[in-house]
Amino acid sequence: MRAVVYDKTGPSSVLELVERDLPEPGPGEVRVRVVRSGVNPTDWKFRAGMMAGWDEVVPGQDGAGVVDAVGPGVEEHAVGDRVWLVLAQHGRPYGTAAEHTVQPVGRVAPLADEASYDLGASLGVPAVTAHRALTAGEDGPQRLGPGTLAGRVVLVAGGAGAVGNAAIQLARWSGATVVTTVSSEEKAALARAAGADHVVNYREGDATRAIQEVAPDGVDIAVEVAPAQNIGIDLEAVKVHGLVSIYANNGGDELTMPLRAAFGKNLRFQFLILYTLHDHLVRAAVEDVNAAVAAGALRVGADAGVPLHHFPLDETAAAQDAVEAGAVGKVLIDVTDA
């Protein structure tokens, strides 16, 4: 089979297209013929030096394809099943940038018949991260679904990003009113396509005031991508007992804030990353994401605010470079034919 690998960390030039033996699934594992591989920022960050420890790595946490072999004891999936993958390369060397990947059954989820492989490969990191960001509140719902966020206001910082887009779609499906901040009219259009009720261009006027005009009592949840820059907005805009979910460090690696402002509102700050989530939280997210997909509430494509950028497997380096350069939308690798 063809696979993209690297045996040392560094720039994208360390990636190499090679031929490897077809892997066989062991007990509790399935082999998936990968149709699409999704590229996330962690793929290039790991490759650049944040993560090492194996002689050879096939990148790719997300993907979608077809089960073509099952190991002993597997009852959850059968040959021919359409599936999507989550955490495919977490804690293991071989991810989804290969024609086949062997995965534990817990990292393989059914893909609805009406869902495209493009959508399946776009779910894992963005949608599961967004799910946790929306369900980490002390007194809020632990699961998402129609009505679970009814009457609540969600602020999504950077609504044109992959996680931000997923948060908008999941929050709207769950009944929330969604306010999002963006930096340009182009990104505003994408956020509206995702379903945002109110879009604030933070480069035009007072973003905090604009948010407070929509939510004078404060927002219930802030999904935060740039805490170093936005902490002032979060402290003013989030209501008493509200939640600030921080999933990225855009705009700075250090966060400084006035503690009394946070004390006074009894705010909950949830720092989160997918790779160290408890398994039961990942499973709950996968179940809710599948329900949203089945309901048509999670979509990709320009009309959903997620432009798609396709690269062939032998251009995986270019795909990772595109993500590193800040490509708006979702970067996908076409691995095999559907």
TrEMBL record:
<dbReference type="InterPro" id="IPR013154">
    <property type="entry name" value="ADH-like_N"/>
</dbReference>
<feature type="domain" description="Enoyl reductase (ER)">
    <location>
        <begin position="10"/>
        <end position="333"/>
    </location>
</feature>
<keyword id="KW-0521">NADP</keyword>
<dbReference type="InterPro" id="IPR020843">
    <property type="entry name" value="ER"/>
</dbReference>
<dbReference type="InterPro" id="IPR036291">
    <property type="entry name" value="NAD(P)-bd_dom_sf"/>
</dbReference>
<dbReference type="Pfam" id="PF00107">
    <property type="entry name" value="ADH_zinc_N"/>
</dbReference>
<dbReference type="InterPro" id="IPR011032">
    <property type="entry name" value="GroES-like_sf"/>
</dbReference>
<dbReference type="InterPro" id="IPR013149">
    <property type="entry name" value="ADH-like_C"/>
</dbReference>
<dbReference type="Pfam" id="PF08240">
    <property type="entry name" value="ADH_N"/>
</dbReference>
<dbReference type="InterPro" id="IPR051603">
    <property type="entry name" value="Zinc-ADH_QOR/CCCR"/>
</dbReference>
<protein>
    <submittedName>
        <fullName>NADPH:quinone reductase</fullName>
    </submittedName>
</protein>
